[in-house]
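Q: Convert this sequence to structure tokens.
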Amino acid sequence: MRIVQTAILAAVLSLAAPAATVVNFDDLPDDPFGAAVPAGYGGLNWGVDFGVWDSSSSAIYPPHSFNNVLLGNRLNQSGYAAMPVYFVTPGAEFLGAWFSGSGTALFDMYFSGNLVATSSSLNLNSTSTYLASGYSGPVDEVRLTADRGQFVMDDFTYNPAGTAVPEPGTALLMGLGLAAVSMLSRRRA
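A:
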């Protein structure tokens, strides 16, 4: 009986997924004009197009968590150009981020220089809203593209490389296998 309990416990523990990394920018100093994001912050290298900003007093740019958000700083005649974010360790699974403001935003995801996925487009408003990547494969670069609207981004979320979540069927098969081994060992004893 003890072996069966151990097998069940092992199966349940294998279902526990590693926690995602959430980069929220709240430990960085803010600046009225958008302070630069340090290289390697949160396991990412941020393009020069992003700046840290305290949006707690803004009704149209509310943060998702706490006060600091990223403000996009690259406006050109056509709107915002693609603003890159590079993973320090390639192969991460990018999950998404929270946005508020006006206009639209979307993500293009790259791996080894190739476009591997594009998220849906999000219409921004004064409610902080999550834009999911919609892609579960490895990436080493995410490019944020937005139109001429003004926006802020918060809680950039990803699973680091090498932390793939096991499929529930895998854990179930492992648990059943351990239970079978324990039953066979009890029969022999």
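Residues 168-188 form the longest helix (21 residues).
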